[in-house]
Amino acid sequence: MLPKLVRVIFSLFLIAGIPALSWHSARPSHLRGIPKTALYFSAVMSQWVLAAIGVVVVIVAWPNWSSAGFHRVAFSGFLYWTLLLTVVSVVGLGFFLLLEHWGWWPEESEVVRLLMPETTREKLWALFGLAPTAGLCEEFLYRGFLLAEASGWCHSVVWGVVVSSAAFGLAHLYQGINGMVRAALLGALLAYPVVQVGSLYPSMTAHFLIDAIAFLWLGPRFLEQEKSSEVAP
After folding, report:
1. For 126, which of 37, 101, 112, 115 is 20 to 30 Å away at the CA?
2. Nearest CA among 96, 84, 68 for reference residue 185
């Protein structure tokens, strides 16, 4: 009874607590004036602390690590899924940016613009701090723990994907409707190989690559184009 209660409490915190905390702490008025590297450090530390709590929950309340997606996969399968997820996600992200550029999709929130790395130091933080942290911690929490837990609640893997992806989207509520929908769709995509092969490793690696490309290339490039169009006569 106690292990189940521990899992439920932690799951509800991921579904409702994280969105509430991120919405409260990631307001533009709170972020302005704070160095981006300090914001990055805070985000990295908070995710690792949350992941550490998740590790304790798994140790205490689950029978083995494979339940959370830590299952070996053949290298060929790992490479296939990693490349497929990365390519599809980057193309999808580019598509959303184009829709936004054409005025067919809501603009990026001010928070996203404030957090986008610009200097070399900020980009290094994004590459070696934010991207790997997101790949490891978020995949473990949402595609590992919550996906399995929600699938058990609903007695359906499909609904488990829906619940865990919706929770992942809500965790990005501070990014506005654009970021929330994009994160939910990405969550569903990253859940697919976990369901198919039972392993988090392709999704973890792909998540790192997707965030690295978004932070270092797609995001800054899009913002530069926006600035150029704003100053153009």
Report:
1. 101
2. 96
